[in-house]
């Protein structure tokens, strides 16, 4: 994805463990996911990111558990975390995804995928100005700082909204 995409999209940067993720794209679910996604299967963090993206008027949200084929049901716990063939195809697109996204939604505050992050900001007034934040300082006491993958996502991003 070296060229700009045709449709605007956001990306989600978040931390998850395979044991807490209810719903992913697997080889057996791939075709049905192209038609419809079951809203009630997504945890609160993922639902918040989808709603936030829709409220911005952006038609698409990219997040790895859905957009990269994950471990198939047949593999069980012994199988790879991701489908190796799909990973080989998708991994080379990562820099472009984060560079061309309208915004990266960095869900830093939820300690698990079952926690909402939008409810944390509804009672505060909007900021009177936007300011630039230091990535290292902003993420230092969050799971993002201890996981290389999520930290890389933020380094590659051009516009980040922290929650």
TrEMBL record:
InterPro entries reported for this sequence: HET
Name of a matching Pfam family: HET
Location of the Heterokaryon incompatibility domain: 10-152
PANTHER family from the UniProt entry: DOMAIN PROTEIN, PUTATIVE-RELATED, HETEROKARYON INCOMPATIBILITY DOMAIN-CONTAINING PROTEIN
Protein name stated in the entry: Heterokaryon incompatibility domain-containing protein
Biological source species: Paraphaeosphaeria sporulosa
């Amino acid at each position: 994805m070296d060229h700009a995409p045709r449709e605007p999209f956001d990306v989600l940067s978040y931390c998850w463990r395979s044991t807490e993720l209810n719903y992913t794209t697997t080889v057996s679910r791939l075709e049905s996911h192209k038609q419809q996604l079951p809203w009630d299967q997504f945890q609160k963090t993922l639902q918040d990111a989808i709603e936030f993206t829709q409220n911005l008027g952006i038609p698409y949200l990219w997040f790895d558990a859905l957009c990269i084929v994950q471990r198939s049901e047949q593999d069980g716990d012994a199988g790879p975390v991701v489908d190796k063939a799909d990973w080989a195809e998708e991994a080379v697109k990562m820099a472009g995804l984060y560079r061309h996204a309208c915004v990266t939604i960095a869900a830093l505050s939820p300690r698990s995928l079952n926690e909402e992050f939008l409810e944390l900001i509804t009672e505060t007034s909007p900021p009177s100005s936007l300011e630039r934040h230091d990535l290292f300082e902003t993420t230092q006491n969050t799971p993002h700082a201890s996981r290389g993958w999520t930290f890389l996502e933020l380094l590659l991003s051009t516009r980040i909204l922290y929650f």
